[in-house]
Amino acid sequence: MTRRPYHLVGLRGPVLATLALCAAIGLATRVHAAEPKPWLDTTASFETRAAALVAEMTLEEKAAQMQNGAPAIERLGVPAYDWWSEGLHGVARAGQATVFPQAIGLAATFDVPLMGQVATTISDEARAKHHQFVRDGQHGRYQGLTFWSPNINIFRDPRWGRGQETYGEDPYLTARMGVAFVHGLQGDDPVYRKLDATAKHFAVHSGPEADRHHFDAKPSKRDLYDTYLPAFEALVKEGQVDAVMGAYNRVYGESASASKFLLRDILRDDWGFKGYVVSDCWAIVDIWKHHKIVPTREAAAALAVKNGTELECGQEYATLPAAVKQGLISEAEIDDAVTRLFTARMRLGMFDPPERVAYARIPASVNQAPAHDALALKAARESLVLLKNDGVLPLSRDLKRIAVVGPTADDTMALLGNYFGTPAAPVTILQGIRDAAKGVEVRYARGVDLVEGRDDPNATPLIEAAYLRPAADSPERGLRGEYFRTADLAGTPALVRTDAQIGFGWDRGSPTDNLMARGEAGPGQGVPNDNFSIRWSGQVLPPVSGRYRIEAAADDGFRLYVDGKRVLDHWTPSDRIRSDGVDLDLDAGRAYDLKLEYFDAERDAGVRLGWRMPGAKPPFEEALDAARSSDVVVFVGGLTGDVEGEEMKVNYPGFAGGDRTDLRLPATQRKLLEALKDTGKPVVMVLTGGSALAVEWAQENLSAILMGWYPGQRGGTAVGEALFGDYNPGGRLPVTFYTADQKMPAFDDYAMEGRTYRYFRGTPLYPFGHGLSYTTFDYGKLQLDSPRIAADGRLNVQVEVANTGKRDGDEVVQLYVRRVDAAPGDAVQSLHGFQRVHLAAGQKQTVAFDLDAYQALRQYDEARGAYEVPPGAYEVRVGSSSADARVKARFTVEAKRD
């Protein structure tokens, strides 16, 4: 990957920019200038410099540096640093940032180069943000250069709520996507790291969320080595990932964050890992409190460090000085751990003059640059998977009216998933359809709530931008937003902008029972995470005369004014989301002054402003009326991060703690879909979500199904383009979709038999790798360079692929291998190559794969305790999904053992 040039946009030249950054860094540069120390000697290795710095620290100082919130050591010129930053599909929890499709959606692109571009863009924004934070004297959480992504756990069970964070169920796909992501994050400078990526959660961790602090995963060693470890091995050996994160649960009786077997024997001894290990947050507490492996905090901290976890997310490592005094660990072992950590910080350039670090010159202007928005749109387009189409798609623009109904059509949260930043101008699916319709009337009705039993603040539709303007006679649409650094609307606004709609929830990521807002980070751009306030003002222009129900909802305080009169007043903190409404008679053709004031005290932050127009029927009937009066119905539903996610504290029918207990759509949505079908109008379903859905009723009864995942800030644009044929969808499923009545193995059983396309022996609803197109592709004869594996273990495979349809499109050519004389417990088949190719109508292309057969075919032999390649006959299968092998060929292999 070629490193792009950077220009100091908006600064006064390289010299002044360097001086400003040096002044902000402060402590380190002053020490460097006044009395050079060996750890500031840029001619020495990072390891040597780190050891010299650690040698000057007290035991207590060393222990403090081993916790994520590491304090400053002023006498040594060490600035404060928080190791905790997130960047799963965009810089998260650090204010405004470009938001790409959720990780599972990125995996659905099957596009490795695209993944590299996405990660490079994330790291550009992360670097720019970090240096701006430093210039502003900020050294807090989510402001650093050490990013706790990617999540490369295997999505072995569709019930897992955090599966959306992964690259799916296949080890090979996960490894290819993960290595590309790491390379994009860490950069290609021969001296400095751009960021530190973190492979998590090592190594056997995928639910249940409710039990993650308690359970002991005990897969067979064959499943461990054949399924759970390969992606981690690839990221360590190929990706050169600098950090690995442990998990909460035990593995074979040991805490994954203090496991000699995982962290010493495998990670360091077998794979040669040279970086550092960080615990999952508060996982060290679990060692003594929940797993009860040791009786005390001191013993837990000592055990974790001795077995290879250098950095703790939490506070248990504060007890390490006491652990040394108790003889549980030596100070030399602590020295080794802290030296690893400071080696990493030095490799990031934190202790060097900024002019030596090219990445330090990335300007703040790159954040949310137009090119980044364009890349977010490209990724959203490529993530879309067309599951079914009876010919109704693409939609014709000769239609008179389209009804868009469903609970996630106009919900920004349906774009985001979890672990996200604040997009500048997110495009909902409703807006994307309206933009793409180009003259076709679009009628919208939400219809139903997302799930049953939820006091849903989204039930009242947002006031749309078309009915708002920031000032009289303004050509803009929306309200003027003034964002203050204080909770009382005092002082000069840190940010002023026009917001099209008022419907925000800033991502916090910590478990909460909040229904709308989940953000530890505030709006960004100088607005703090907590204790901020916002004033929106402008005018509302009612489209019809009559009685309106205007509703506001917020976490913490809000006040609403109409024509200068305060009509809603809840200006007090709240530990839950609070909503209220007022009925007002408004006249069409008149503009009413509107003002909404909001403050956030601490923790969760979110606010929305909605209305119901005069004569509005109950939502369900409104949706059916919209359907009956339209030519086609587009139902947009599924899931959001409000119901599937990480260790959530709310439970609804079909959900438990963020996991799913029912693979079907929530009952509210199923009921609406059946009623829509009964109208006799064609129904197209667009699904949002981060996991497989059992939608066999829809497969049998609806006209088309498009899987949209959580598609990021431009997801609505991509969906609208795909529905009208401006873009030809070509994504593929990175997970198997099962039927609702399919009996699944126990969720807490980590055996792979019966799971994923590799070990599932039944017939899925949609197979791994499945995805349709608006064109057709044919495959020529499969060619192998030899019927036997060459001495170097390589096998070259080629096939000609032709676009035989009338539209340009993408085909994902997939290569699977299966053992002809499979033994009990063998995988049905395994993916070992894929390429996404774009072909114009009528175009042909030869697609070649260079298969490392000995690596691809290896299986773990539990008796020998090592990998082997069983000799015999194998079959290469190439096609467009795991269940659609278009061409096949056989080859043989001699025995090969590691």
Automatic annotation (TrEMBL):
Signal peptide location: 1-33
SUPFAM superfamilies: (Trans)glycosidases, Anthrax protective antigen, Beta-D-glucan exohydrolase, C-terminal domain
Membrane-spanning segments: none
Listed Pfam families: Fn3-like (PF14310), Glyco_hydro_3 (PF00933), Glyco_hydro_3_C (PF01915), PA14 (PF07691)
Residues in PA14 domain copies: 474-627
Keyword presence, Cell membrane: no
InterPro entries registered for this protein in UniProt: BXL, Fn3-like, GH, Glyco_hydro_3_C, Glyco_hydro_3_C_sf, Glyco_hydro_3_N, Glyco_hydro_3_N_sf, Ig-like_fold
Similarity comment: family membership: Belongs to the glycosyl hydrolase 3 family.
Protein name: Glycoside hydrolase family 3 C-terminal domain-containing protein
Gene source species: Stenotrophomonas aracearum
